Amino acid sequence: MPTFEYTLRRNLREIRRSFRAQQRQALVLVKPSVAATPEVYRCPWCLRDPVYVHYHDNEWGRLCTDDLKLFEFLVLETSQAGLSWLTVLKKRENYRALFAGFDPVKVADFTQADVDRMVLDPGIVRSRRKINAAINNAQVFLGIKREYDRFADYIFTFLPERRPIVNNPARVIEIPANTPYSDALAADLRKRGMQFIGSTICYAHLQAAGFVNDHLVKCSFKHA
Ligand SMILES: [Zn+2]
User: How far apart are the CA of 110 and the centre of ligand 1, in A?
Assistant: First the structure.
């Protein structure tokens, strides 16, 4: 028969062993995961296609003041009406080839013979009205450049303090489709004769070219 003291000592040893095992387990649990890589978080709207992801990571929300690039976005955005932005993005290189590298000076001089040829090309949105609008909009774009030098400087006149706006949406649903700034920009562009342009397209333009930064607060590319 074990004595009372023996039983007590054995129980104490058991308790200490159990306690040390728990400590070891706790150490394992708090140990950082092996070579933890920083988490990359993206705005969820871009996740369904690699073309969208690339656009999100490298263009959307980054300030762009380059005239050729701004005209490129305008051509693509005005071609989008009724289609998804992703559909147009996937046709971008076809547009670049047909629209003279998105040079507004060259596009403004396109003739109806050019339109007749382009409307047959399956690589772009085959809408005669949209192609004609792009040519017309190139002429308006050049008029604005003559007035403001840079198209970006014209856009800045519609923004408070003439600076980019950084919003901090927590969720995609908080991002608006248009704002008073895009309303005013669209109204002025229409007054100047631009076609296929409305407040929603203007807001998309402001977002794409980084005049408005609408990346979610937790997006890894918000300040990329
Ligand atoms: Zn983002």
Answer: 37
The candidate with the shortest Cα–Cα distance to 167, out of 154, 181, 155, 151, is 181
| 85 a catalytic residue | yes
Distance 40 CA to ligand 1 centre (A): 10
Paired strand residues for 190: none
* DSSP code, position 37: P
Average pLDDT, the chain: 88
Per-residue burial over 139-165, b = 16 or more CB atoms within 10 Å of its CB, e = otherwise: ebbbebbeeeeebbebbbebbeeeebb
Q: How far apart are CA 104 and CA 72, in angstroms?
A: 9
Domain spans in the chain, listed from the N-terminal domain onward? 1-37, 44-213
Which pLDDT score is estimated for 82? 85
Tokens of 169: 């949406």
- 35-39 long-range contacts, CB within 8 A, separation 24+: 39/220
Over residues 111-157, the pLDDT tens digits come to 999 999 999 999 999 999 999 999 999 999 999 999 999 999 999 99
Instruction: Indicate if the pLDDT at residue 4 is higher than 70.
Output: no
CA of residue 137 to ligand 1 center, whole Å: 29
| Structure-token pair, residue 15 | 């308790």
> 86 and 55 in contact (C-beta within 8 Å)?
no
Superfamily of domain 44-213 in the CATH hierarchy: Hypothetical protein; domain 2 (1.10.340.30)
